[in-house]
């Protein structure tokens, strides 16, 4: 007998500018405060890069299409080069747009569902191009007076709606979790979180119960497709496995012990001179335009082994005219790392990697003045300074935000238990 609860208790984490919370949710005042705290943390991270641009998002009104404005829906297998030639734009224009995209690399992962909107000038030359990734994430590339392109991120953090899913494990955890409504990425996260504590293929007893609080991101009524696990409990034999997401992007158990394996501060076997530091406000020496440096450059000679900063999965191995050959790794929690200007990648897309594993040899590919490794760390999809960021160190929960974390855990556990009771009555 498998019990799967489909009823969703939706909590609206408050987020400006809409600060009202439906009265019917019955959320305690302290929790409201926590919702705020959570939101503010995310905003702080986001705003580290481009504060002005971020606040512009709601201002931009969609304009009607005319012969100066074209809309293009990305098809599977599309590349920017193919799209530009189909649209009749020159390769030079494409390179100018890609130069502007070097610090974002948003155009390297065009997928069906994304759209491009081109605005042309009177000579049919490209004036601007907007990439629509989802309702909360658009990027506008614009031609400047000097003919070069600049970019603006039009971000809207939206709101996170959470729901509680409960079930029992029969057969594999994968199938049971899937039946309860979790997606593949979320199930992989659960496996990774508990992999030091339980062997899912061997140690799970039939009938073990699980409870998950999962939230989805919305901008207005539009789901952005982003989701995350806020909390999970698995009751297996006499063991209780717990994991809760803290507002620093890391997971801890219900007692506040870290579930994250430590990150390496520097993805190299030894220290190298920093040839250029992280600087979101960096300006182009000639144009004075803001041209953020979203990573840390190490003066590594070509051929220096580059190591994965933490366990994760390779999600990109790409060649870019300016970023060169590069690798991107998705880590669990809300962390991502990027390694640019590589001579050679030693991994392939989709591959699982371990902390400290050799993933590449550094080089001087792309637009560089000399060989170096450009290393980026992203938290909640925003680049942060890898040398000073609060990286997971596999230590217990920090004092800052500790009380808030336990309050939120208590609230989620209450939700989980109520949902389980509901499901058992059905
Ligand atoms: Zn760099």
Automatic annotation (TrEMBL):
Its main location: other. Its cofactor is Zn(2+). InterPro entries: Cell_wall_metabolism_enzyme (IPR050570), Csd3_N2 (IPR045834), Dup_hybrid_motif (IPR011055), LysM_Opacity-associatedA (IPR007340), M23ase_b-sheet_dom (IPR016047). It is found in: Cell envelope. Transmembrane segments: none annotated. Residues 293-303 have a biased composition (Polar residues). Residues 70-152 form the Opacity-associated protein A LysM-like domain. Residues 292-386 form the M23ase beta-sheet core domain. Keywords: Hydrolase, Metal-binding, Metalloprotease, Protease, Zinc. Residues 282-303 are annotated as: Disordered. Signal peptide: none annotated. Residues 158-280 form the Csd3-like second N-terminal domain. Residues 282-291 have a biased composition (Basic residues). The keyword Protease applies. This is Peptidoglycan DD-metalloendopeptidase family protein.
